[in-house]
Structure formats: C-alpha cells, structure tokens
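Narrative summary of target 7.
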Amino acid sequence: MKVNKFFGAAIAALSIVACSTKPALTLSGLDPQAFVGEKDGKATALYTLTNANGMEVCITNFGGRLVSVMVPDKDGNMVDVILGFDNINDYMTKASDFGASIGRYANRIAGGTFELDGQKVVLNQNDGENCLHGGAEGWQYQVYEAEQTDPQTLKLTMVDPDGHMGFPGTVTAVVTYKLTDDNAIDITYSGTTDKPTVLSMTNHAYFSLSGKHAEEGTDMVLYVNADKFTPANDKLIPTGEMRPVEGTPFDFRTPKPIGQDINADYEQLVLGNGYDHNWVLNTAGDINKLAVSVYSPETGILLEEYTDQPGVQVYTGNFLTGEVPGKHGIKYPMRASVCIETQLYPNSPNMPEWPSATLRPGETYTHRCIYQFSVK
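Modeled conformation, tokenized:
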C-alpha cells in the first residue's frame, strides 16, 4: 500500500512538471510555438511585451508585425484590438500587411519607377504597374533580427541589400517597439544607407477597437487633424493636388463615425472603394500634437496617434473579403478595421515639391509614431 501511494505521488509530480513546461498561451490566446519557423535560414518567433497595467503586445519578427494588442475596455475587460493570424504559416503563405513594419517604401510609387540623381530606378511592380509597400517581397515578408532588451522593449533590425526589389543601396533599418506604463506603444524607426536611396517606413496595424472582428468597424469614430488630403487617380496614385477637406466626406476635423459618409457619391470614395488616402497633417512634425484618434462607442476604447511625419494614410479595410480565416478562425469582412499609417506622402520620390524621401550616406532616416490607448 505504501508503495502504491509513493508511485501515485511520483506520477502526480511528474504530471505537474510536464504541465509546467508546456508553453503557456499569451493573454490574447496565442501559442508561441505556432510562431516558431524559418525563412531564408532566419528563425521566426513570437515576442511578448507587458506593462505594469497588464497590457500585452505580441509581435513576430516575421515582417516586424504586431500580432495582438490587449487593452482594457471601459469595464476593465481585456480586448484584442487588431487583426492578424495566429500562426507563422498563415503569415508566410497568405498575402497580407497585418500589423507589419513596412519598408523599404510605405505606400505606392507610381509606375514602379522614380529618378534619383539623374538615374532612372526601376522597382518591382506588385500593385498593377505600381510598387506598393516595397514590392512583392517587401520587408513585411522578411525576417527581422530581434532583440528583446527588457519586458517592455523589442528591437528589430533589417539589413536590406542593394538592389532588392530594385531599390538602390544597402539599408540598415531599426524598428523599436516600446510598451509604456501609460498604455502606449511607442514605435521608433531609423535607417542608414551606403548609396543614395529612398526610405519611408510605417506600421500597418488593422485596428478594430470593438474587439468584434467578424463585424464591420464603420461605427468607430475617427478624428484626423488635417485641413487637406491628397486626391488620387484610378490607380490610387496622388494627383499632386492638396484638396481642402471642407465640404467633402474627407473632413474628420470634427470626430464622426467612419461609416457616416463612406458610401457617399464622391469620386474619391468610389475610386478607393472607401477611404484609402493620405491626409496632410496640421501637426507640422510636432510629436506632442494629436494627429489622429479612433474611438469605439461599444468598448469605450480610445486610440490616439502622435507622429513626427507629415502625412497619414487612412485605410478602411476596403479589400478585406471575409474569406480568409484570421486569429481564432475569425473571417474578417470588408471594412472590419481601420489603418492609420503615419508616413511621407505616397509617390513622394516622383513629387519633388513634397517632403523628400531621399536618404544619402551619412544621413539617418528617423520616424516616430505613438499609439496611445485609454478609455472614455
């Protein structure tokens, strides 16, 4: 009898040890083991940042992507507020920009070409004749070198070789995610080059602040601190005009639901199948001035965005189809979310009168964006 008791106790102890060594799921329900993979000989993983308030941010170094962002709602419940996948295979095999650190050039470059120092540069064309988000193998599909320096900071490094996707110069870029104790994700970008090139990075998180990712997100209330936007042609390339938002569906200087005017008979909305445009921010590069805010009346979650960049692309998920399963098997319908991508203006390499995207040896590209979360 004593032997049986001892044997039973030993089995129970081994079971406890086995359970304790099994990788725990994240607060958002992600399995870190599902992000263990490899591309081009580089290992992928899931990294988790947490702060003193219990907020959690999960990031994969594949594409430098935000995978989940858990923030408290008005009732204190934790809500995942971004779209994405729950395993590395889906990120690698299903084309998407979910949560990505975009490079080498955020947004579109017309015709996949531009002129630099009198020389024509020919890029990969992956959006009709345009180059979009760095081409078909842009940085969202590459593996960043990752270093988690503390529980609240992740440093990601990309070395992009000369000629990749047609871009000149070997660029070394760094993206640092910092989760602060006031519930902000503070993102800083920097980059250097060994030849003249262009560089403009951004984050491409798809925000759904209700947490109900299977539903449209057009009830979210949007504010954009901009008096003008840059209209686009039928290829979604800016025409060069800076059009006043006053009297148009693009006026978000007074907060209003995204869906209030999204189906209006206005030529820019028809061309973009909704909002997919660059706004000219009034903030003049002042990181302390509010650029954009998004609010969910359902959860009370407020997202405020601050940046030192001159523009922001507001994209309302117009090309989501509701066909591809995302996290936890949820299929994201058209307009389930909103992206607020701080940036240099689209096609700036072909628009010399706009803020320059040119980066030369000895210079450092810098960009900062803050996603500040709270409830109201």
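Residues 1-20 have pLDDT under 50 and may be disordered.
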